[in-house]
Design a protein that fits this description.
Blueprint: E1 2-6, H1 19-31, E2 36-39, E3 42-43, H2 53-67, E4 72-75, E5 78-80, H3 85-91, E6 106-110, H4 121-130, E7 134-138, H5 144-147, H6 150-159, E8 162-166, H7 167-171, H8 176-187, E9 193-195, H9 209-219, H10 221-236
Parallel strand pairs: 1-2, 2-4, 3-5, 5-6, 6-7, 7-8, 8-9
Helix pairs in contact: 1-2, 4-6, 9-10
The structure holds fe (ii) ion (FE2).
Length: 248
């Protein structure tokens, strides 16, 4: 399995504070069946701006050196859509401060929790798609204003947005409300990835196997494999998702 959303770098956000915690988090993920993890530190977040990509890459290399070969780590970012300026920063890639997922055309985007704050997500998705980017919306089930707006969720996916649901919301280890939304999204075929969004070893741990089992039980083995392995593999290999002929 491949984990596309994980706060594993030490001392950069609300993930691990020390490298020892980072190494332990990655080892637990590997023991749970993750072969590849993409480090996605918060970026453009009011508390964790993380605009020095070189520093993030150095921290990633240090964790990888401590781990050895497994799990394989890549750099990414959870890019907060704080303002329309974020589009300029994205267009500057691979220069500038932001990170796509493993250097691919796929971007992990965090929306704002208060409704109406930040740019209109439909406009951002449209602008990114016409520029050849593949926007992935992180945990749509966690934003109250989006989670209950089925029409907007469908419109975003129809426009070309991809959706990443949090593993604990699939396996039922988190709150009941986002779990119910995650189930509805899965029933509607609106989910493209399941990832851990791990932050630590206690309250928000790594690992995808419990979610895989819940997916298999509820939506079948093929769907479980697609969301935890086949689709994330396409991301880190920078190619269209299985079943898609080309990037739009
Ligand atoms: Fe996150």
């Amino acid at each position: 399995m491949i984990d596309l959303h994980c706060h594993l770098l030490p001392g950069v956000d609300d993930g691990p504070s020390e490298i020892e915690e980072s190494v332990a988090l990655c080892r637990q993920a590997a023991a749970d069946g993750c072969e590849v993890m993409v480090a996605t530190p918060h970026q453009r977040h009011p508390y964790w701006w993380n605009g020095d990509r070189q520093l993030l890459a150095e921290k990633l290399a240090a964790v990888q050196e401590r781990l050895g070969e497994r799990p394989r780590l890549f750099l990414g970012g959870e890019i907060h859509l704080d303002s329309i300026e974020v589009l300029d920063e994205i267009q500057a890639l691979p220069q500038g401060s932001l990170s796509s997922l493993a250097g691919s055309r796929y971007l992990l985007l965090e929306l704002s929790y208060p409704e109406g704050y930040g740019p209109n997500p439909e406009e951002v998705v449209h602008e990114l798609l016409v520029s050849g980017w593949k926007p992935i919306i992180a945990h749509p089930e966690m934003y109250p204003w989006l989670a209950e707006d089925d029409e907007l969720l469908v419109r975003l996916v129809e426009r070309g947005a991809l959706m990443q649901v949090t593993a604990m919301n699939v396996s039922g280890l988190f709150d009941r409300r986002p779990q119910r939304v995650a189930g509805r999204l899965l029933d509607a075929g609106l989910v493209h990835f399941v990832a851990s969004d791990a932050h630590n070893l206690s309250t928000r741990p790594p690992g995808l196997s419990a979610a895989f089992r819940a997916l298999r039980a509820g939506w079948g083995e093929e769907k479980a494999y697609a969301l935890t392995t086949a689709n994330p593999t396409a991301v880190i290999e920078n190619r269209p998702l299985p079943g898609e002929s080309s990037f739009r």
